[in-house]
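Suppose you are handed a protein chain with no further information: no name, no annotation, nothing but its sequence. What can you learn? This example shows the usual starting point.
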Amino acid sequence: MARVETLEAFRDAFATLGYGVCDGEQPETGYEKVALFALAGVPKHVARQLSSGRWVSKLGPSEDIEHALHDLTGMSYGSVVLIMKRPSQSVTSVPPVRAH
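A reasonable first move is to predict its three-dimensional structure. Written in structure tokens, the prediction is:
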């Protein structure tokens, strides 16, 4: 896997975590989504969707913020260029471990 700051490299990195490209930003039951922001073709930021449909981001050393997806569009992060999803990774979906 390439260690470069390109959209393709970020897409491939998230694919190793089980994410696939999807079309919409609307929440889907049973899935978690991430949105990649880029400025002039260079990845700048990733936001994660909450179950409420809102998004959460870590902005530098600040606390996490909750926001509408396109609230961060601008000169610092660019705009949303890719949305990916994977099946939810909830703790309750992990099968129990049996003692022998």
